[in-house]
Design brief:
The chain is an alpha/beta fold and 484 residues long. The chain has 18 helices and nine strands. InterPro entries: D12N6_MeTrfase_N, DNA_Adenine_Mtase, DNA_methylase_A-5, DNA_methylase_N6_adenine_CS, SAM-dependent_MTases_sf, T1MK-like_N_sf.
């Protein structure tokens, strides 16, 4: 129903000089979607209050509500073209009045848990990139055709928004930072199996994929009671994100999935000192894909017991310490983490094996992350007991991965099935930790169950086979000529 609208919005943005990339398209669509969502939410709350005979005070002033400036209606409820701002007047209003007003909510909000605070955060991080008030007017009219009133409508919009995030990821390296393939996320969540009442945390949440998929998984398991629903809404999902655009997109993504005021914080997670973490700061479950290949400054490294400039290694230390005792984690990391010989990585592997039960390592094929150019593994571990055995699974979809043939849920079904019992197969095996070299703590993926490859043939054998094929082809051609 809404798919054509999204295409038309992209067409408008494509003609807009201020928007040049898929990242810009997603960012600009996000702030307009958010304000339309907010207007529908306000209307629904007003109606509920009226039915209950209660007064309702809107979040936004009337003059700054979507229905006033973005989509004014006449007495018949039709779009009021004469009363709608357009051209330079519209751009001036958005840049000089609307955005400053919305930014001010952060200072006025009672607490960071409120939607008022989220409004201030979002519009403090985002800029209007439309330079033409005529293009902006076209986009606003299209967005106004979308509706957030029913659960089905929100569901469809969340799928379309996910598609935009995926396109942003496919568009290049910067977009790829924010996108983890959803089939991989779903497989990780199936193994972790979060339950209502547990807290879930992603300290590098990007576009919010792990939290959104975990919400869908937990909400879909059975009919939720009112208390369980409120628990999922308010006290289950927590995230942190350093980059402004990703923070805004994650907030919008979670809202579209049905979480009204996401517990997301715009911050650099690594600036927190992990030695100062209190029990109240810890979580039952960590799901994350921290950034690959980043480098952190000396002052950031001081927040960690194992000093390294490698961002992913610092995140892993953070995640190990933010888990409660008995907590569970699934973390995507570069496969070189298993074998690098630098002192910091060796020390980190040692600490992981001694303080956590690293029970599963999923080895992902090249091309899983578009544009990233690195091989990855997923580490599954539980906090509090040392590792005795590690179960490895080497994923081989039997094809080259890429934009046209990305990872799918079927690719991971065998892994999820076998992982339940840590079963051996051609693609899976177990390693006893007492067999690990305690000098290097090397945990490299070496599959002892893979079928032996055919030995390479000698050049003489290859030439002989080619001659046999040539002779056969000559014979067939001669038979065809004789038939003519």
């Amino acid at each position: 129903m809404f798919e054509q609208t999204f295409r038309n919005i992209d067409d408008v943005l494509w003609k807009e000089a201020g928007c040049t990339t898929e990242l810009d398209y997603t960012e600009q669509t996000s702030w307009m979607l958010f304000l339309k969502y907010l207007d529908d939410l306000e209307s629904a709350r007003e109606l509920e209050a009226e039915l209950d005979g209660k007064a309702y005070t809107p979040i936004l002033d009337k003059e700054h509500r979507w229905s006033t400036w973005a989509a004014p209606k006449d007495a018949k409820g039709q779009y009021d073209h004469d009363g709608a701002l357009i051209g330079d007047d519209l751009i001036d209003y958005v840049n000089r009045e609307l955005f400053p007003y919305l930014q001010g909510f952060k200072a006025r909000a009672d607490s960071p848990d409120t939607i008022e605070y989220k409004i201030g955060e979002i519009f403090g991080e985002i800029k209007n990139k439309f330079t033409s008030g005529y293009s902006l007017r076209d986009a606003l009219e299209l967005i106004d055709g979308l509706s957030f009133r029913s659960q089905d409508q929100k569901h469809e919009l969340s799928h379309l928004y996910e598609a935009k995030i995926k396109n942003m990821g496919n568009a290049g390296r910067n977009g790829g930072e924010y996108y983890t393939p959803r089939p991989l996320i779903r497989a990780m969540i199936q193994v972790i199996n979060p339950q209502v009442g547990e807290t879930i945390y992603d300290g590098a949440c990007g576009s919010g994929g792990f939290l959104c998929e975990a919400y869908d998984h937990m909400r879909g398991k059975h009919g939720l009671s009112t208390i369980e629903y409120r628990t999922l809404q308010e006290r289950t999902f927590y995230g942190k994100e350093k980059k402004s655009l990703a923070y805004v997109i994650a907030t919008m993504n979670l809202i579209l999935h049905g979480i009204e005021a996401p517990n997301l914080i715009h911050t650099n997670t690594l600036t927190e000192n992990v030695m100062d973490l209190q029990e109240k700061d810890k979580f039952d479950i960590v799901l994350a894909n921290p950034p690959f290949g980043g480098k952190e400054r000396k002052e950031v490294q001081q927040n960690f017991p194992i000093k390294t400039s490698e961002t992913a290694s610092l995140f892993l230390q953070h995640f190990m310490r933010t888990l409660k005792a008995g907590g569970r984690a699934a973390i995507v990391i570069k496969n070189t983490f298993l074998s690098n010989t630098d002192n910091a990585t060796v020390a980190l592997r040692k600490e992981l094996l001694e303080s956590c039960n690293l029970h599963t390592v999923l080895d992902m094929p090249g091309g899983t992350f578009l544009g990233a150019g690195v091989r990855t593994v997923v580490l599954f571990f539980e906090k509090g007991q040392p590792t005795r055995n590690i179960w490895y699974y080497k994923l081989d979809p039997g094809r080259n991965m890429g934009k046209t043939n990305p990872l799918n849920d079927n690719d991971l079904a065998d892994f999820v099935r076998l992982q339940k019992s840590f079963a051996d197969s051609e693609k899976s095996w177990s390693l006893a930790v007492d067999g690990v070299d305690f000098g290097t703590y090397d945990l490299s993926v070496r599959n002892p169950n893979a079928p032996e490859e055919e030995p390479l043939r000698s050049p003489d054998e290859i030439i002989a086979e080619m001659k046999a094929f040539d002779a056969e082809a000559t014979e067939i051609l001669a038979e065809i000529e004789a038939m003519l």
